[in-house]
Specification:
This protein is of the alpha+beta class and 205 residues long. The protein has five helices and 13 strands.
């Protein structure tokens, strides 16, 4: 069922760092019992009439009928304050499980780029941090987000997503992840078996 909300600002910066949107527990009580809810949203005032997928968490600072977005999320969705949002809950069991996600990184602040531009970051540690922060979250192809690593905020973007294609395998109780092929998807959920590839943006120092 699709419900209507009005856009407001997220209550604090944690939502930008966790890539979540804020909802009222009155509107989504399951966001409390389950920790989060996966939503597909559409902005009727957006001429492109595109759809976007987010994880939402409950926050009592958000009034019923509102949904809180961070600045970069509103910019990506071309969503203005008080714009109408049409939201539909997604069944996480029907969302593709991401097998590989390619991520492009740049420094969010120019000062960090000047200071750490020549630094080599450990991609394995980056992957661990990413999974700790975004486990079970839904991401979209081309989605921008903020990724904090070693106290540095990166401007990140999903460049591509591949998901496990279970339909390409024969059904068996002994099915292994290595036996499952992948296919390109426009969105997918991050899990413990998701492989991550990080690359520097062309504009990165």
């Amino acid at each position: 069922m699709t419900e209507r909300f009005l856009c407001t600002k997220s209550p604090d910066d944690s939502y930008a760092l966790n890539n979540t949107v804020a909802v009222s527990p009155n509107d989504f009580p399951e966001a409390i019992s389950q920790g989060k809810v996966h939503l597909n949203i559409r902005i009727p005032e957006n001429p492109a009439a595109s759809y976007y997928n987010f994880c939402a968490v409950a926050d009592r600072k958000i009034h019923p009928g509102q949904m809180g977005f961070a600045g970069h999320q509103r910019k990506w969705c071309r969503l203005g304050l008080n714009n109408e949002i049409q939201a539909t809950k997604l069944n996480p069991n029907r969302i593709p499980n991401a097998s590989v996600i390619n991520i492009e990184l740049n420094f969010l602040k120019a000062a960090d780029g000047n200071k750490h531009g020549e630094t080599t970051f450990n991609s394995d540690q980056m992957a661990i941090k990413f999974n700790e922060t975004f486990n079970s979250q839904i991401f979209n192809k081309n989605q921008p987000f903020v990724f904090q690593f070693e106290k540095i905020n990166f401007s990140a973007q999903i460049k591509s997503i591949q998901a496990y294609d279970v339909s390409s395998t024969s059904r068996t109780k002994n099915l292994r992840i290595s036996d499952v092929s992948s296919k390109d998807e426009n969105y997918g959920i991050v899990g413990s078996n998701t492989s991550l590839s990080f690359q520097a943006s062309e504009s990165s120092p």
